Amino acid sequence: MGASVVKEAFCADELPPECEIEAVLVWHDDNARAAIGTLLDDIRHLRHQLALTEGAMSRGMTRGWRPIYDRD
Known about the structure:
Helices cover 65% and strands 0% of the residues.
């Protein structure tokens, strides 16, 4: 179960953060461990996709911008 499945259940842009959290928990039958596991899998997948994209982009296309993998 990934983010695409959860995204089908609700549109994140239309919900306040509290409702997003509740929607994720409801989707996982209130199993917080399953919800966290899905979110961690999504993060790993997106980081992998970002790394692939970074490798395929030319430096001129992004004017020297490089993605940051960790938050400040």
